[in-house]
């Protein structure tokens, strides 16, 4: 196959490969997007010490919704 990877070769021939590309519709389920983004958001929040700001904002929003 001249140096192409298995997945690239399979995509070029139209057969499913080991690492399929994006779905034909190009959309992803919202829960999958949340599952991908949430761990990184938590990691960045903890790493940069922003947890207090998140708590303050959440309590402010809760206070506004309670009115």
Helix/strand structural class: mainly alpha
- Overall shape: it is elongated
Distance between the termini: 67 Å
DSSP summary, beta strand count: 0
List the domain count as a whole number: 1
Question: Number of helical runs?
Answer: 3
- State which percent range the strand residues make up: under 5%
Mean pLDDT: 77
Show unreliable segments: none
The description of the largest β-sheet is: none
Helix fraction bin:
55-70%
- Order of SSEs, N→C? HHH
| Computed Rg | 21 Å
Please provide a written account of the structure:
Residues 1-25 are annotated as: Disordered. Keywords: Membrane, Transmembrane, Transmembrane helix. The chain crosses the membrane at residues 31-51. The protein is mainly α and 67 residues long. It has one domain. The chain is built from three helices and no strands. The chain has helices at residues 6-13, 30-47, 51-66. The chain is elongated and about 55 Å long. The model has no long low-confidence stretch (mean pLDDT 77).
Précis, in short:
The chain is mostly helical and 67 residues long. It has three helices and no strands. Helices cover 63% and strands 0% of the residues.
